[in-house]
């Protein structure tokens, strides 16, 4: 057992209740399958119905990790206060104009939840602001509360807002009268958290979740009527597809977006005809993705059709948007990944990534002239906020780097003038000159160059003595931005090198980077991460026993895989809401995300090849007798994305096979789901706990 964890009480021992399963002629035994609650659907809605034996085990694990981390209580408080001190407690957004009003958010000092507010356009004095939704007030008396959306109607008379008060992501929708600021009688349950107003603002479209937490129906709700009378607009019969309803800046169309991880289909309704039937744009075709953006007389369509792997932008006439009528607007360029597109009256704007870095490009719809908004730092992050309005020359974007606090700009697309509206305040102080941010490239096992973003203080000695927190994700094509993060400064200020490994499985270097870390190529994701860890140690940024690896969700699967693959490369591992029981989850088609996830991971029910492919790396299935470092796993009891039993089973098996390694800690939040605690300060307490673990295992606590 590692020295920092001496004198621990006896660890919980999960009872073994072997369950055998045979697929494709292969038999596996799962000793801890009983930790999966048979009534998980009910538990998501009411945690009191959890099997007492399962609850007792989770509570015993919580008591054990509390004992193991007891000597870090003061450190956790210190870290929390530091991180809280970097937040402007009464912060507010720059209001976004829309017609006669401007809309924004703010926080009160000490408040956990956002407040949504509006003010007459062009007026920003405090007395001009009206709080239209107070998150702190709505959260009173609730252990968990999260607002999913707050969308004003086009006539500015009503607010459609959603919330979850269990962490299960079964959201309720309410409608608020913006004159009286009272909620109307409309109360819509079991939604995905948002909706789209019709053109007359007499009702809205929304996605309804079924008992297995899948958005299987799009319905239309007319204000003042019971939910039972909502009109079924479209029902998706294939459980393998996600679905949602979206709108446009022109409020002219409602988009029904149906997709999995590699195929998409759009169905259109005119927003002024809520009784109409949706029209298919391009029928789903395996491997072909597209997204729709309304542009007046045309649609702009972002797609990978015709082997445009890194995507191109097409146009189609509004009255005939079918695929045979698509015309090229921005050509495909290999290695330049177009991420999203926005249309305005005179301009089209998109954000793209090339050589691992993002940029914003503006194109004049009439002349065809285009230009990019340029930046100079070695590694940075961009966010395109756009505008609520269609008839405008001004868009909004955010910029930051690992050392530069977030800046909000308005950008005039015609004059190319950028106006700085706000720079993120760090009340406790922050001098970018005290830190170094770097982008290095690390050769992986097959020669692929893996980008790595580094942050550390200028006075950090790079002689192998510095501890390192190495973060990774590497799935679903998600790229991890090199953005400003005030929390990680608490590690950097204690001598840490903070590193982000932009490994395969994300789209950091284009779509091919994603494909090279997916399904049959999934092992590249794990090997990339191990290569980065070994490189950082070899180049004296740190040493192997001082590297703490961190990842969450699919990044938690990464943590489990690299722990099995190279336990000697890490001094500690933090796996949050960890997707570690991959094979069992992909074999359970009743779980919310399993059928839609098969394109990402493979379908082990239908395919022996996929079964063996997943079994080869699934962290839970590959736990062995190895010199594992200390591991912290974090779970949420009502998490519908990565169910609590995945990390619970993983920790039980690690401990049973390796009584002298670790220790292995499991922290289950009994009042939350996938995203952890809902309040901004409660979330900081969870980060402080994880950071305290990293400091403890590296001897810096």
Break the fold down into its secondary structure elements and pairings.
Elements lengths: L18 E5 L2 E5 L9 H6 L6 H17 L4 H13 L10 E3 L2 E6 L8 E6 L9 E5 H5 L6 E7 L5 E7 L6 E7 L5 E15 L5 E7 L5 E8 L8 E5 L6 E5 L6 E7 L4 E7 L8 E2 L9 E6 L2 E6 L8 E6 L9 E4 L5 E8 L3 E8 L2 E8 L5 E4 L7 E6 L7 E7 L6 E6 L5 E6 L11 E9 L5 E9 L10 E5 L16 H4 L4 E5 L9 H5 L7 H16 L8 E6 L1 H12 L6 E5 L5 H5 L7 H8 L6 H8 L15 E6 L8 H13 L6 E6 L10 H18 L4
Parallel strand pairs: 32-33, 32-34, 34-35, 35-36, 36-37
Antiparallel strand pairs: 1-2, 3-4, 4-5, 5-6, 7-8, 8-9, 9-10, 10-11, 11-12, 12-13, 14-15, 15-16, 16-17, 18-19, 19-20, 20-21, 22-23, 23-24, 24-25, 26-27, 27-28, 28-29, 30-31, 31-33
Descriptive account of the structure:
This is S9 family peptidase. The chain has 701 residues and is an alpha+beta fold. Among the domains are: 293 residues, Alpha/Beta hydrolase fold, catalytic domain (Rossmann fold); 147 residues, Methylamine Dehydrogenase, Chain H. It is built from 13 helices and 37 strands. The strands form eight sheets. Strands 30-31-33-32-34-35-36-37 form an eight-stranded mixed β-sheet, with helices on both faces.
- Overall, the morphology is globular
Corresponding CATH superfamily of one domain: Alpha/Beta hydrolase fold, catalytic domain
The total count of helices amounts to: 13
What is the CATH architecture descriptor of one domain? 3-Layer(aba) Sandwich
CATH fold description of one domain: Rossmann fold
**Strand residues, percent:** 25-35%
Identify the CATH class of one domain: Alpha Beta
pLDDT averaged residue by residue:
95
Helix content: 10-25%
Strand arrangement across the biggest beta sheet: 30-31-33-32-34-35-36-37
């Amino acid at each position: 057992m590692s020295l920092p964890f001496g004198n621990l009480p006896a660890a919980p021992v999960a009872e073994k209740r072997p369950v055998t399963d045979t697929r494709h002629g292969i038999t596996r035994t799962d000793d801890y399958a009983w930790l999966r609650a048979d009534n998980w659907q009910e538990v998501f809605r009411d945690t009191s119905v959890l099997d007492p034996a399962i609850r007792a085990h989770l509570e015993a694990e919580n008591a054990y990790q509390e004992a193991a981390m007891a000597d870090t209580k003061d450190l956790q408080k210190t870290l929390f206060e530091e991180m809280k001190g970097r937040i402007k407690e009464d912060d507010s957004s720059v209001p976004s104009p829309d017609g006669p009003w401007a809309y924004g958010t703010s926080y009160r000092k000490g408040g956990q939840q956002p407040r949504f507010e509006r003010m007459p356009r062009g007026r920003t004095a405090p007395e001009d602001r009206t709080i239209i939704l107070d998150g702190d007030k709505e959260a009173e008396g609730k252990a968990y509360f999260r607002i999913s959306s707050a969308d004003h109607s086009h006539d500015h008379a009503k607010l459609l807002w959603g919330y979850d008060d269990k962490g299960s992501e079964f959201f309720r929708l309410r409608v608020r009268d913006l004159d009286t600021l009272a909620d109307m009688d409309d109360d819509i349950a079991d939604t995905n958290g948002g909706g789209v107003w019709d053109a007359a603002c007499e009702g809205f479209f929304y996605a309804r979740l079924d008992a297995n937490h899948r958005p299987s129906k799009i319905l239309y709700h007319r204000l003042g009527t019971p939910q039972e009378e909502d009109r079924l607009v479209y029902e998706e019969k294939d459980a393998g597809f996600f679905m949602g309803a979206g709108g446009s800046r022109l409020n002219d169309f409602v988009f029904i977006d149906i997709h999995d991880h590699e195929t998409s289909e759009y169905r259109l309704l005119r927003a002024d005809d809520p009784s109409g039937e949706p029209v298919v744009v391009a029928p789903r075709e395996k491997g072909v993705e597209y997204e729709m953006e309304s542009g007046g007389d045309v649609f702009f369509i972002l797609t990978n059709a015709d082997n445009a792997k890194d995507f191109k932008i097409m146009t189609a006439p509004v009255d005939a948007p079918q695929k045979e009528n698509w015309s090229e607007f921005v050509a495909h360029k290999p290695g330049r990944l177009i991420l999203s597109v926005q249309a305005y009256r005179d301009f089209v704007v998109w954000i793209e990534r090339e050589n691992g870095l993002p940029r914003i490009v503006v194109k004049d719809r009439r002349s065809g002239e285009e230009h990019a908004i340029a930046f100079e730092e070695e590694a940075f992050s961009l966010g395109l906020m756009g505008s609520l309005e269609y008839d405008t020359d001004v868009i909004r974007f955010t910029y930051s780097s690992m050392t530069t606090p977030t800046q909000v700009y308005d950008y005039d697309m015609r004059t190319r003038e950028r106006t700085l509206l706000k720079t993120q305040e760090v009340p406790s102080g922050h001098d970018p000159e005290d830190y170094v941010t770097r982008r290095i490239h690390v050769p992986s096992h097959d020669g692929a160059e893996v980008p790595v973003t580094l942050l550390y203080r200028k006075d950090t000695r790079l002689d192998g003595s510095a501890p390192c927190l190495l973060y990774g994700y590497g799935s679903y094509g998600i790229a991890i931005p090199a953005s400003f993060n005030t929390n990680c400064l608490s590690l950097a200020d204690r001598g840490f090198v903070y590193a982000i490994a932009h490994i395969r499985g994300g789209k950091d270097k284009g779509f091919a980077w994603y494909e090279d870390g997916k399904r049959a190529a999934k092992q590249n994701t794990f090997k990339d991460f191990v290569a980065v860890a070994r490189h950082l140690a070899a180049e004296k940024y740190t040493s192997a026993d001082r590297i703490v690896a961190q990842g969450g969700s699919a990044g938690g699967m990464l943590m489990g895989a690299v722990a099995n693959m190279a336990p000697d490369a890490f001094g500690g591992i933090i796996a949050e809401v960890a997707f570690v029981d991959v094979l069992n989850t992909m074999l359970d088609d009743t779980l919310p995300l399993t059928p839609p996830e098969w394109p990402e991971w493979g379908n082990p029910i239908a395919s022996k090849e996929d079964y063996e492919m997943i079994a080869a790396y699934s962290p839970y299935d590959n736990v062995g007798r190895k010199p594992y470092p200390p591991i912290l796993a974090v779970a949420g009891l009502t998490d519908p994305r990565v169910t609590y039993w995945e990390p619970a089973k993983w920790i039980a098996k690690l401990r049973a096979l390796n009584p002298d390694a670790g220790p292995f800690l499991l922290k289950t939040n009994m009042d939350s789901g996938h995203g952890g605690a809902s309040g901004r300060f409660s979330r900081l307490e969870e980060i402080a706990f994880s950071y305290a673990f990293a400091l403890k295992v590296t001897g810096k606590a």
